[in-house]
UniProtKB/TrEMBL annotation:
Ranges for region Disordered: 1-38
Lineage of the species this protein comes from: Bacteria, Bacillati, Bacillota, Clostridia, Eubacteriales
Main location group: membrane
GO MF, one annotated term: hydrolase activity
Subcellular location: Cell membrane
UniProt-recorded name of the protein: Potassium uptake protein, TrkH family
Organism: Thermaerobacter marianensis (strain ATCC 700841 / DSM 12885 / JCM 10246 / 7p75a)
Length: 482
Protein backbone atom coordinates (compact mmCIF):
# COMPACT_ATOMS: atom_id res chain seq x y z
CA UNK A 1 0.00 0.00 0.00
CA UNK A 2 1.27 3.48 -0.82
CA UNK A 3 1.84 5.26 2.49
CA UNK A 4 2.99 8.51 0.98
CA UNK A 5 -0.60 9.65 0.37
CA UNK A 6 -3.44 10.37 2.78
CA UNK A 7 -2.55 10.23 6.42
CA UNK A 8 0.22 7.61 6.12
CA UNK A 9 3.72 8.11 7.51
CA UNK A 10 6.13 9.86 5.15
CA UNK A 11 8.42 7.58 3.15
CA UNK A 12 11.95 7.31 4.62
CA UNK A 13 14.89 8.03 2.36
CA UNK A 14 16.92 5.07 1.11
CA UNK A 15 19.66 3.95 3.47
CA UNK A 16 21.83 2.06 0.98
CA UNK A 17 25.11 3.32 -0.40
CA UNK A 18 23.38 5.06 -3.28
CA UNK A 19 20.52 6.19 -1.08
CA UNK A 20 22.77 8.20 1.21
CA UNK A 21 23.97 10.26 -1.72
CA UNK A 22 20.45 10.56 -3.10
CA UNK A 23 19.05 11.77 0.23
CA UNK A 24 21.81 14.26 0.90
CA UNK A 25 21.31 17.93 0.05
CA UNK A 26 23.01 19.19 -3.10
CA UNK A 27 25.37 21.28 -0.96
CA UNK A 28 26.57 18.17 0.84
CA UNK A 29 27.18 16.32 -2.42
CA UNK A 30 29.18 19.25 -3.72
CA UNK A 31 31.25 19.33 -0.54
CA UNK A 32 31.96 15.61 -0.37
CA UNK A 33 32.74 14.98 -4.03
CA UNK A 34 36.03 16.93 -4.08
CA UNK A 35 37.15 15.24 -0.85
CA UNK A 36 36.51 11.82 -2.35
CA UNK A 37 38.36 12.81 -5.51
CA UNK A 38 41.34 13.79 -3.40
CA UNK A 39 41.56 10.38 -1.72
CA UNK A 40 44.89 8.73 -2.61
CA UNK A 41 45.09 5.96 -5.17
CA UNK A 42 48.15 4.00 -3.98
CA UNK A 43 48.22 1.87 -7.12
CA UNK A 44 48.30 4.94 -9.37
CA UNK A 45 51.02 6.63 -7.31
CA UNK A 46 53.06 3.43 -7.37
CA UNK A 47 52.72 3.07 -11.15
CA UNK A 48 53.66 6.71 -11.74
CA UNK A 49 56.65 6.37 -9.42
CA UNK A 50 58.10 3.52 -11.47
CA UNK A 51 57.42 5.44 -14.69
CA UNK A 52 59.24 8.49 -13.34
CA UNK A 53 62.34 6.50 -12.40
CA UNK A 54 62.34 4.82 -15.83
CA UNK A 55 62.25 8.18 -17.62
CA UNK A 56 65.05 9.56 -15.45
CA UNK A 57 67.16 6.47 -16.12
CA UNK A 58 66.56 6.67 -19.86
CA UNK A 59 67.83 10.26 -19.91
CA UNK A 60 70.98 9.31 -17.99
CA UNK A 61 71.68 6.35 -20.28
CA UNK A 62 71.24 8.63 -23.31
CA UNK A 63 74.18 10.79 -22.22
CA UNK A 64 77.51 10.18 -24.04
CA UNK A 65 79.25 9.76 -20.67
CA UNK A 66 77.23 6.56 -20.22
CA UNK A 67 78.65 4.96 -23.37
CA UNK A 68 81.93 3.25 -24.13
CA UNK A 69 84.16 5.14 -26.62
CA UNK A 70 82.94 4.57 -30.16
CA UNK A 71 79.49 3.44 -29.03
CA UNK A 72 76.20 5.25 -29.42
CA UNK A 73 72.84 4.41 -27.85
CA UNK A 74 69.62 5.79 -29.32
CA UNK A 75 66.90 7.03 -26.99
CA UNK A 76 64.59 4.06 -27.64
CA UNK A 77 67.37 1.63 -26.72
CA UNK A 78 68.20 3.72 -23.64
CA UNK A 79 64.51 3.71 -22.65
CA UNK A 80 64.34 -0.04 -23.23
CA UNK A 81 67.43 -0.63 -21.06
CA UNK A 82 66.17 1.65 -18.29
CA UNK A 83 62.78 -0.09 -18.30
CA UNK A 84 64.45 -3.49 -18.19
CA UNK A 85 66.61 -2.38 -15.23
CA UNK A 86 63.85 -0.74 -13.17
CA UNK A 87 61.51 -3.65 -13.88
CA UNK A 88 64.38 -6.01 -12.90
CA UNK A 89 63.98 -7.94 -16.14
CA UNK A 90 67.33 -8.21 -17.89
CA UNK A 91 66.22 -8.15 -21.53
CA UNK A 92 68.78 -6.11 -23.47
CA UNK A 93 69.07 -4.80 -27.00
CA UNK A 94 72.82 -4.15 -26.63
CA UNK A 95 75.54 -5.91 -24.68
CA UNK A 96 75.85 -4.10 -21.35
CA UNK A 97 79.61 -4.56 -20.86
CA UNK A 98 80.58 -3.65 -24.41
CA UNK A 99 78.19 -0.70 -24.87
CA UNK A 100 77.98 1.14 -21.55
CA UNK A 101 80.80 2.79 -19.63
CA UNK A 102 81.38 2.27 -15.93
CA UNK A 103 79.12 5.26 -15.30
CA UNK A 104 76.41 3.73 -17.48
CA UNK A 105 76.72 0.38 -15.70
CA UNK A 106 76.43 2.10 -12.32
CA UNK A 107 73.29 3.87 -13.52
CA UNK A 108 71.86 0.50 -14.55
CA UNK A 109 72.81 -1.00 -11.18
CA UNK A 110 71.16 1.89 -9.33
CA UNK A 111 68.01 1.44 -11.42
CA UNK A 112 68.04 -2.28 -10.58
CA UNK A 113 68.30 -1.53 -6.86
CA UNK A 114 65.51 1.04 -6.95
CA UNK A 115 63.35 -1.25 -9.06
CA UNK A 116 64.00 -4.29 -6.89
CA UNK A 117 63.32 -2.65 -3.55
CA UNK A 118 60.63 -0.38 -4.93
CA UNK A 119 60.38 3.34 -5.42
CA UNK A 120 58.45 3.88 -2.18
CA UNK A 121 60.91 1.80 -0.16
CA UNK A 122 63.83 3.92 -1.35
CA UNK A 123 62.01 7.22 -0.87
CA UNK A 124 60.81 6.17 2.59
CA UNK A 125 64.32 5.14 3.56
CA UNK A 126 65.63 8.54 2.46
CA UNK A 127 62.87 10.29 4.40
CA UNK A 128 63.77 8.34 7.54
CA UNK A 129 67.44 9.25 7.14
CA UNK A 130 66.62 12.97 7.08
CA UNK A 131 64.21 12.64 10.02
CA UNK A 132 60.96 13.11 8.09
CA UNK A 133 57.74 11.65 9.50
CA UNK A 134 56.05 9.02 7.33
CA UNK A 135 52.42 9.95 6.73
CA UNK A 136 49.49 7.54 6.67
CA UNK A 137 49.08 8.13 2.94
CA UNK A 138 52.69 7.06 2.37
CA UNK A 139 52.10 3.97 4.51
CA UNK A 140 49.16 3.05 2.27
CA UNK A 141 51.39 3.29 -0.79
CA UNK A 142 54.04 1.08 0.83
CA UNK A 143 51.30 -1.39 1.72
CA UNK A 144 50.22 -1.49 -1.93
CA UNK A 145 53.82 -1.82 -3.13
CA UNK A 146 54.56 -4.86 -0.95
CA UNK A 147 51.09 -6.42 -1.10
CA UNK A 148 50.60 -6.32 2.66
CA UNK A 149 47.24 -6.84 4.36
CA UNK A 150 47.49 -3.81 6.68
CA UNK A 151 49.27 -0.43 6.68
CA UNK A 152 50.48 -1.09 10.22
CA UNK A 153 54.22 -1.67 10.62
CA UNK A 154 55.19 -0.30 7.20
CA UNK A 155 58.17 1.67 8.52
CA UNK A 156 59.54 -1.44 10.22
CA UNK A 157 58.98 -3.33 6.97
CA UNK A 158 61.03 -0.78 5.01
CA UNK A 159 63.85 -1.01 7.53
CA UNK A 160 63.75 -4.81 7.46
CA UNK A 161 63.70 -4.96 3.65
CA UNK A 162 66.70 -2.64 3.47
CA UNK A 163 68.74 -4.55 6.05
CA UNK A 164 68.00 -7.93 4.48
CA UNK A 165 68.86 -6.66 1.00
CA UNK A 166 72.16 -5.18 2.14
CA UNK A 167 73.05 -8.36 4.03
CA UNK A 168 72.36 -10.71 1.12
CA UNK A 169 74.03 -8.48 -1.46
CA UNK A 170 77.11 -7.97 0.73
CA UNK A 171 77.45 -11.71 1.37
CA UNK A 172 77.05 -12.46 -2.33
CA UNK A 173 79.62 -9.82 -3.27
CA UNK A 174 82.16 -11.24 -0.84
CA UNK A 175 81.72 -14.86 -1.95
CA UNK A 176 81.75 -14.12 -5.68
CA UNK A 177 84.73 -11.78 -5.40
CA UNK A 178 86.89 -14.25 -3.50
CA UNK A 179 85.90 -17.18 -5.69
CA UNK A 180 86.42 -15.46 -9.05
CA UNK A 181 89.68 -13.94 -7.81
CA UNK A 182 91.08 -17.30 -6.67
CA UNK A 183 89.48 -19.88 -8.97
CA UNK A 184 89.38 -17.91 -12.23
CA UNK A 185 92.47 -15.70 -11.79
CA UNK A 186 90.54 -12.47 -12.23
CA UNK A 187 92.35 -9.34 -11.03
CA UNK A 188 91.02 -8.51 -7.57
CA UNK A 189 89.54 -5.16 -8.64
CA UNK A 190 87.71 -6.73 -11.58
CA UNK A 191 86.50 -9.63 -9.43
CA UNK A 192 85.20 -7.16 -6.82
CA UNK A 193 83.38 -5.08 -9.42
CA UNK A 194 81.83 -8.08 -11.13
CA UNK A 195 81.02 -9.73 -7.81
CA UNK A 196 79.20 -6.62 -6.59
CA UNK A 197 77.31 -6.09 -9.84
CA UNK A 198 76.14 -9.68 -10.15
CA UNK A 199 75.24 -10.02 -6.46
CA UNK A 200 72.93 -6.99 -6.68
CA UNK A 201 71.56 -8.14 -10.02
CA UNK A 202 70.92 -11.68 -8.72
CA UNK A 203 69.23 -10.76 -5.44
CA UNK A 204 66.95 -8.32 -7.26
CA UNK A 205 66.21 -10.99 -9.88
CA UNK A 206 67.40 -8.64 -12.63
CA UNK A 207 69.63 -10.86 -14.78
CA UNK A 208 71.91 -8.07 -16.04
CA UNK A 209 75.55 -9.12 -16.44
CA UNK A 210 78.82 -7.40 -17.35
CA UNK A 211 80.47 -10.16 -19.36
CA UNK A 212 81.30 -9.78 -23.05
CA UNK A 213 79.16 -11.17 -25.86
CA UNK A 214 81.56 -14.00 -26.74
CA UNK A 215 80.29 -16.01 -23.75
CA UNK A 216 77.37 -13.95 -22.44
CA UNK A 217 75.72 -14.12 -19.05
CA UNK A 218 77.08 -17.04 -16.97
CA UNK A 219 77.79 -19.49 -19.81
CA UNK A 220 81.50 -19.58 -18.88
CA UNK A 221 80.49 -20.93 -15.44
CA UNK A 222 78.18 -23.69 -16.72
CA UNK A 223 77.76 -26.29 -13.97
CA UNK A 224 80.10 -24.52 -11.53
CA UNK A 225 78.71 -25.52 -8.10
CA UNK A 226 79.92 -22.40 -6.26
CA UNK A 227 78.51 -19.94 -8.81
CA UNK A 228 75.30 -21.97 -8.96
CA UNK A 229 74.85 -21.97 -5.18
CA UNK A 230 75.79 -18.32 -4.62
CA UNK A 231 73.91 -16.70 -7.50
CA UNK A 232 71.13 -19.29 -7.39
CA UNK A 233 70.78 -18.76 -3.64
CA UNK A 234 70.51 -14.99 -4.11
CA UNK A 235 67.87 -15.47 -6.80
CA UNK A 236 65.81 -17.79 -4.61
CA UNK A 237 66.12 -15.51 -1.56
CA UNK A 238 64.98 -12.47 -3.52
CA UNK A 239 62.20 -14.45 -5.17
CA UNK A 240 60.78 -15.88 -1.93
CA UNK A 241 59.66 -12.45 -0.78
CA UNK A 242 60.50 -10.44 2.32
CA UNK A 243 57.33 -11.58 4.09
CA UNK A 244 58.52 -15.19 3.89
CA UNK A 245 62.07 -14.27 4.93
CA UNK A 246 60.71 -12.42 7.98
CA UNK A 247 58.49 -15.37 8.91
CA UNK A 248 61.41 -17.79 8.58
CA UNK A 249 63.53 -15.47 10.73
CA UNK A 250 60.90 -15.53 13.47
CA UNK A 251 60.82 -19.33 13.27
CA UNK A 252 64.60 -19.51 13.71
CA UNK A 253 64.46 -17.22 16.76
CA UNK A 254 61.38 -18.85 18.28
CA UNK A 255 61.07 -22.55 17.55
CA UNK A 256 57.42 -22.57 18.64
CA UNK A 257 56.49 -19.92 16.09
CA UNK A 258 54.07 -21.33 13.53
CA UNK A 259 54.76 -20.50 9.90
CA UNK A 260 51.89 -18.72 8.16
CA UNK A 261 49.87 -20.36 5.42
CA UNK A 262 51.42 -17.92 2.95
CA UNK A 263 54.96 -18.98 3.89
CA UNK A 264 54.16 -22.68 3.70
CA UNK A 265 52.49 -22.29 0.31
CA UNK A 266 55.47 -20.36 -1.05
CA UNK A 267 58.03 -22.87 0.24
CA UNK A 268 56.18 -25.96 -0.98
CA UNK A 269 55.37 -24.50 -4.40
CA UNK A 270 58.92 -23.19 -4.87
CA UNK A 271 60.42 -26.56 -3.95
CA UNK A 272 58.06 -28.40 -6.31
CA UNK A 273 58.88 -26.09 -9.22
CA UNK A 274 62.62 -26.39 -8.61
CA UNK A 275 62.54 -30.18 -8.48
CA UNK A 276 60.24 -30.54 -11.49
CA UNK A 277 62.22 -27.98 -13.49
CA UNK A 278 65.56 -29.62 -12.74
CA UNK A 279 64.30 -33.07 -13.75
CA UNK A 280 62.72 -31.85 -16.99
CA UNK A 281 65.77 -29.82 -18.05
CA UNK A 282 68.15 -32.67 -17.21
CA UNK A 283 66.08 -35.19 -19.18
CA UNK A 284 65.66 -32.88 -22.17
CA UNK A 285 69.26 -31.65 -22.38
CA UNK A 286 71.29 -34.61 -21.07
CA UNK A 287 72.54 -35.72 -24.49
CA UNK A 288 72.42 -32.33 -26.22
CA UNK A 289 76.07 -31.62 -27.15
CA UNK A 290 75.41 -27.87 -27.34
CA UNK A 291 74.15 -27.63 -23.73
CA UNK A 292 74.62 -30.37 -21.10
CA UNK A 293 76.00 -33.12 -23.34
CA UNK A 294 79.66 -32.10 -23.07
CA UNK A 295 79.68 -31.55 -19.28
CA UNK A 296 80.64 -34.09 -16.58
CA UNK A 297 77.72 -35.71 -14.77
CA UNK A 298 77.97 -33.54 -11.65
CA UNK A 299 78.12 -30.34 -13.69
CA UNK A 300 75.16 -31.49 -15.78
CA UNK A 301 73.07 -31.69 -12.62
CA UNK A 302 74.25 -28.32 -11.31
CA UNK A 303 73.58 -26.64 -14.68
CA UNK A 304 70.12 -28.23 -14.90
CA UNK A 305 69.37 -27.06 -11.36
CA UNK A 306 70.45 -23.50 -12.21
CA UNK A 307 68.25 -23.48 -15.30
CA UNK A 308 65.31 -24.44 -13.10
CA UNK A 309 66.10 -21.45 -10.85
CA UNK A 310 66.75 -18.73 -13.39
CA UNK A 311 63.35 -18.69 -15.19
CA UNK A 312 61.86 -17.76 -11.81
CA UNK A 313 62.36 -14.15 -13.03
CA UNK A 314 66.16 -13.97 -12.75
CA UNK A 315 67.35 -14.01 -16.37
CA UNK A 316 70.89 -15.36 -16.00
CA UNK A 317 71.73 -18.36 -18.14
CA UNK A 318 74.48 -20.98 -18.04
CA UNK A 319 73.23 -22.78 -21.15
CA UNK A 320 73.14 -21.21 -24.64
CA UNK A 321 69.47 -20.33 -25.03
CA UNK A 322 69.35 -20.75 -28.81
CA UNK A 323 70.49 -24.38 -28.50
CA UNK A 324 67.82 -25.58 -26.04
CA UNK A 325 65.46 -28.40 -27.01
CA UNK A 326 61.76 -27.73 -27.48
CA UNK A 327 60.89 -29.43 -24.17
CA UNK A 328 63.28 -27.16 -22.26
CA UNK A 329 61.90 -24.08 -24.03
CA UNK A 330 58.34 -25.04 -23.08
CA UNK A 331 59.38 -25.79 -19.49
CA UNK A 332 61.14 -22.42 -19.32
CA UNK A 333 58.05 -20.59 -20.62
CA UNK A 334 55.86 -22.18 -17.94
CA UNK A 335 58.35 -21.38 -15.17
CA UNK A 336 58.68 -17.78 -16.39
CA UNK A 337 54.92 -17.29 -16.40
CA UNK A 338 54.64 -18.49 -12.79
CA UNK A 339 57.64 -16.46 -11.60
CA UNK A 340 58.50 -15.94 -7.95
CA UNK A 341 56.50 -15.08 -4.85
CA UNK A 342 54.63 -11.98 -3.62
CA UNK A 343 56.31 -9.18 -1.65
CA UNK A 344 59.68 -9.87 -3.25
CA UNK A 345 61.77 -8.86 -6.24
CA UNK A 346 60.28 -11.41 -8.64
CA UNK A 347 57.60 -11.11 -11.31
CA UNK A 348 55.14 -13.50 -12.93
CA UNK A 349 51.72 -14.48 -11.63
CA UNK A 350 53.48 -15.73 -8.44
CA UNK A 351 53.74 -19.12 -6.75
CA UNK A 352 50.78 -18.51 -4.45
CA UNK A 353 48.57 -17.79 -7.45
CA UNK A 354 49.52 -21.14 -8.98
CA UNK A 355 48.88 -22.92 -5.68
CA UNK A 356 45.46 -21.30 -5.29
CA UNK A 357 44.47 -22.10 -8.87
CA UNK A 358 45.40 -25.77 -8.45
CA UNK A 359 43.61 -25.91 -5.10
CA UNK A 360 40.50 -24.35 -6.67
CA UNK A 361 40.51 -26.96 -9.42
CA UNK A 362 40.83 -29.72 -6.82
CA UNK A 363 37.98 -28.29 -4.74
CA UNK A 364 35.77 -27.97 -7.83
CA UNK A 365 36.41 -31.57 -8.88
CA UNK A 366 35.58 -32.76 -5.36
CA UNK A 367 32.43 -30.65 -5.24
CA UNK A 368 33.62 -28.68 -2.20
CA UNK A 369 32.07 -25.28 -1.45
CA UNK A 370 35.08 -23.96 0.48
CA UNK A 371 38.73 -23.67 -0.51
CA UNK A 372 40.81 -25.31 2.22
CA UNK A 373 44.61 -25.46 2.18
CA UNK A 374 46.73 -26.95 4.96
CA UNK A 375 43.81 -26.88 7.41
CA UNK A 376 43.06 -23.24 6.67
CA UNK A 377 40.08 -21.82 4.76
CA UNK A 378 41.05 -19.36 2.03
CA UNK A 379 38.62 -16.45 1.39
CA UNK A 380 36.70 -16.65 -1.87
CA UNK A 381 37.88 -13.15 -2.83
CA UNK A 382 41.52 -14.29 -2.58
CA UNK A 383 40.88 -17.20 -4.94
CA UNK A 384 39.06 -14.85 -7.33
CA UNK A 385 42.03 -12.47 -7.25
CA UNK A 386 44.36 -15.34 -8.16
CA UNK A 387 42.15 -16.25 -11.11
CA UNK A 388 41.96 -12.61 -12.24
CA UNK A 389 45.75 -12.27 -12.08
CA UNK A 390 46.29 -15.42 -14.14
CA UNK A 391 43.72 -14.39 -16.76
CA UNK A 392 45.09 -10.85 -17.03
CA UNK A 393 48.63 -12.19 -17.34
CA UNK A 394 47.72 -14.73 -20.01
CA UNK A 395 45.66 -12.14 -21.88
CA UNK A 396 48.50 -9.62 -21.84
CA UNK A 397 50.99 -12.20 -23.12
CA UNK A 398 48.59 -13.21 -25.89
CA UNK A 399 47.94 -9.64 -27.03
CA UNK A 400 51.64 -8.71 -26.98
CA UNK A 401 52.61 -11.87 -28.88
CA UNK A 402 50.02 -11.15 -31.57
CA UNK A 403 51.16 -7.54 -31.81
CA UNK A 404 54.80 -8.56 -32.23
CA UNK A 405 53.89 -11.09 -34.91
CA UNK A 406 52.30 -8.25 -36.89
CA UNK A 407 55.51 -6.23 -36.91
CA UNK A 408 58.22 -8.90 -36.86
CA UNK A 409 58.71 -12.16 -38.70
CA UNK A 410 60.38 -14.13 -35.94
CA UNK A 411 59.12 -17.66 -35.19
CA UNK A 412 56.07 -17.98 -32.96
CA UNK A 413 57.98 -19.84 -30.24
CA UNK A 414 60.69 -17.18 -29.98
CA UNK A 415 58.10 -14.39 -29.99
CA UNK A 416 55.96 -16.04 -27.30
CA UNK A 417 59.10 -16.71 -25.26
CA UNK A 418 60.03 -13.02 -25.46
CA UNK A 419 56.56 -11.87 -24.39
CA UNK A 420 56.41 -14.25 -21.41
CA UNK A 421 59.94 -13.28 -20.40
CA UNK A 422 58.94 -9.61 -20.40
CA UNK A 423 55.72 -10.21 -18.45
CA UNK A 424 57.52 -12.35 -15.86
CA UNK A 425 60.37 -9.78 -15.68
CA UNK A 426 62.76 -12.65 -16.40
CA UNK A 427 65.18 -11.48 -19.07
CA UNK A 428 65.81 -14.77 -20.86
CA UNK A 429 65.59 -14.63 -24.64
CA UNK A 430 66.04 -16.93 -27.61
CA UNK A 431 68.15 -14.21 -29.21
CA UNK A 432 65.62 -11.99 -30.98
CA UNK A 433 65.65 -8.97 -28.63
CA UNK A 434 68.30 -6.88 -30.49
CA UNK A 435 66.54 -7.50 -33.82
CA UNK A 436 63.06 -6.41 -32.76
CA UNK A 437 61.30 -3.67 -34.70
CA UNK A 438 60.79 -0.36 -32.83
CA UNK A 439 57.08 -1.10 -32.31
CA UNK A 440 57.90 -4.53 -30.86
CA UNK A 441 60.47 -2.96 -28.53
CA UNK A 442 57.79 -0.59 -27.25
CA UNK A 443 55.40 -3.52 -26.73
CA UNK A 444 58.06 -5.41 -24.77
CA UNK A 445 59.01 -2.44 -22.58
CA UNK A 446 55.33 -1.81 -21.80
CA UNK A 447 54.95 -5.49 -20.93
CA UNK A 448 57.98 -5.33 -18.62
CA UNK A 449 56.42 -2.31 -16.93
CA UNK A 450 53.08 -4.07 -16.50
CA UNK A 451 54.83 -7.18 -15.20
CA UNK A 452 56.79 -5.25 -12.58
CA UNK A 453 53.95 -3.04 -11.37
CA UNK A 454 51.55 -5.98 -11.56
CA UNK A 455 48.57 -6.43 -13.91
CA UNK A 456 46.04 -6.02 -11.09
CA UNK A 457 47.80 -2.98 -9.66
CA UNK A 458 47.99 -1.40 -13.10
CA UNK A 459 44.31 -2.12 -13.72
CA UNK A 460 43.37 -0.48 -10.42
CA UNK A 461 45.65 2.48 -11.20
CA UNK A 462 43.80 3.10 -14.46
CA UNK A 463 40.35 3.00 -12.86
CA UNK A 464 38.53 5.04 -10.26
CA UNK A 465 39.63 4.63 -6.69
CA UNK A 466 37.41 3.08 -4.10
CA UNK A 467 34.76 0.38 -4.12
CA UNK A 468 31.25 1.44 -3.17
CA UNK A 469 28.85 -1.11 -1.73
CA UNK A 470 26.28 -2.15 -4.35
CA UNK A 471 23.03 -0.20 -4.06
CA UNK A 472 21.05 -3.22 -5.24
CA UNK A 473 21.50 -6.91 -4.50
CA UNK A 474 20.43 -8.87 -7.59
CA UNK A 475 18.85 -12.33 -7.63
CA UNK A 476 21.13 -15.29 -8.19
CA UNK A 477 20.88 -17.43 -11.32
CA UNK A 478 23.01 -20.36 -12.38
CA UNK A 479 24.95 -20.60 -15.66
CA UNK A 480 25.95 -23.79 -17.45
CA UNK A 481 29.73 -24.32 -17.48
CA UNK A 482 31.71 -26.94 -19.39
Amino acid sequence: MDTSLGGGAPQRPATGAAGLDAGAPPERRRRTAPAEAREPNPARILALGFAGVILLGSVLLSLPVAWEPGQRVGYLDALFTATSAVCVTGLVVVNTAETFSTFGEMVILALIQVGGLGVMTMSTLFALLVGKRITFRERLIIQEAWGQLSPAGMVRLVQYVTLVSVAFEAAGTLLLTLYWWQAYDMPFGLALYRGFFHAVSAFNNAGFDVFDSRRPSLERFAGDPVVTLVIGGLIIAGGLGFTVLADLGRRLRHRRHRLSLHTRLVLWTTAALLVAGTVLVAVAEWSNPATLGSLPVDRKLWAAFFHAITPRTAGFNMLPMAELTSLTVLTTILLMFVGGSPAGTAGGIKTTTLALLLATVRATIRGEDELVLMDRRVPTLTAAKALALAVLGAGLVLVVTMGMLLWDHHPLTATLFEAVSAFGTVGLSLGITPDLAPVSKVLILLTMYAGRVGPLTLAVALTRRGRRPPAVRYPEERVLVG
